[in-house]
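re the bet — no i am not wrong, look at it urself. input seq straight from the record:
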Amino acid sequence: MSADAGASVAEIAVSGDRLADAIELLVQSGFRLDSIEPADAPAIAMLSGHGLRVRLDGSASSTRASQPHSGAPTLELTRAGDAGGVGRAGMRYRDVLPSRRGGRFIASHISIDEAGPVADYVHHHDVSVQVIYCLRGWVRVVYEDQGPPFVLEAGDCVLQPPGIRHRVLESSAGLEVLEFTSPAHHTTMVEHELTLPTPTHRPDRRFDGQRFVRHRAADASWGRWWRDSGQARDAGVGTATGGQVGVRAVRPSSSDGARTASHDGELVLWFVLDGAATLQAEGRPDGRLTRNDVVAIPPQIEHALVGCSGDLELVEVTCPDTPNVSSLSPRPPL
């Protein structure tokens, strides 16, 4: 809690695209940043200092502030070239789940163009689930009670349990990660007291019932995909979250064994890491999926991936970990 938590709060309205400048000006004047939200399009910041608390509000003029969509979930397709914007710590965020599923989830394709240190700070999030999957490049990170800093490489994944303090230290040029979080709107809180790495190493520590998970692709094996004849590399998130969320790398079959299916879960999200395939789904025209395209499939929608290239690889997020397949039938190849 801030040392000035009991002080009165001064409200200052700023232009959404000037929020970062306003934060920097106050920090240079002796204030400290206590929280910011949302991470993908910062609009609200709390600072404290000099016996005062300041709330910077850029939400009224922000064009990218996260707004959950209502109504029945529909199939969502976002393309690689869809616009993104600068989010927390100068990282670029592309929204790949625009509906937010009514505020339940947010999924962001986050990138850093230039190599070097990242302008991050020790922080934690008010979340129930948060997963980071490294798509390309590498990033050096450090976590509370999880030992010294380590490098997250392409194919690696971490489950960040609620409240765990962590920091992004540096990255390669062209870093890309997929971040999946519940709920969609959540606060990032700055940690002023704890320094990282912590002197203790407690890999089995529970944070609000979850433990930290580091999945290393180089050490993992491939098995059968839960819904088809393809292969999957499970990141272990399902076990650690009690079945709430599953994360895996998937290589769908490139043969003519593609199948039509529907599921009964909340969500199946596919990020096309490499290769290409054609998505066939009831109620919409066929669409070719290529690198960095993302499709989110709601329950009870008949769909299939056909015409899969031999190098097709997906990153899959499912809620729950393994939804039930409610129908399954052969699908002729294109």
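see?? The first helix runs from residue 19 to 28. told u. also The helical segments are 19-28, 237-240. so pay up
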